[in-house]
C-alpha cells in the first residue's frame, strides 16, 4: 500500500517562486498526492502565482490567510484541509535557493 500524500507549501511574499516550487513538485511520479498551497497573507503577487498553478494542475488545493501569521500558522491551516495519510512540508525559499544553485551556509551535503 502506497499512502496518499499531501505536500504543504506555505508561502509569504514568495511571488513567482511559489509557482516554480509547485511546478517542481508536480514533476513527481508519486502515485497519489495533492499540493496544498497556503498563502500566509502575502502582500505581493503570490496569490496570482498560486492561482496560475491551480489553473494548470488538478491536484492543488489552496488556502488563503487574511493576514500573515507565520509559517507555523500557515502549516496548521494546511493540515486542517489535508486529507492525505502523510504530510510533507516544502519550503519555497529553500527550494528556490537550491534551484538557483546558491550556496547554503551551515549545511553540508550528506554522503
The main sheet orders its strands as 3-2-1-4
Q: Which spans have pLDDT < 50 for at least 5 consecutive residues?
A: 102-111
Element order: H for helix, E for strand: EHEHEHEH
Content of β-strand: 15-25%
Largest sheet: 4 strands, parallel
Q: What helical percentage do the residues reach? A: 25-40%
CA-atom Rg in angstroms: 14 Å
Number of strands: 4
Instruction: Describe the oligomeric state of these chains in a short phrase.
Output: single chain
- SSE class: alpha/beta
Beginning-to-end CA distance, first to last residue: 30 Å
Number of helices: 4
**Shape type:** globular
Mean pLDDT: 87
What does this molecule look like?
This protein is of the alpha/beta class. The protein contains four helices and four strands; from the N terminus they run E-H-E-H-E-H-E-H. The chain has helices spanning 16-26, 46-56, 71-81, 92-99, and strands spanning 5-11, 33-39, 60-64, 86-89. Helix 1 (16-26) packs parallel to helix 2 and helix 1 packs across helix 4 (92-99). Residues 102-111 have low confidence and may be disordered.
Summarize this, please?
With 111 residues, this protein is of the alpha/beta class. It contains four helices and four strands; from the N terminus they run E-H-E-H-E-H-E-H. The chain is 37% helix and 21% strand.
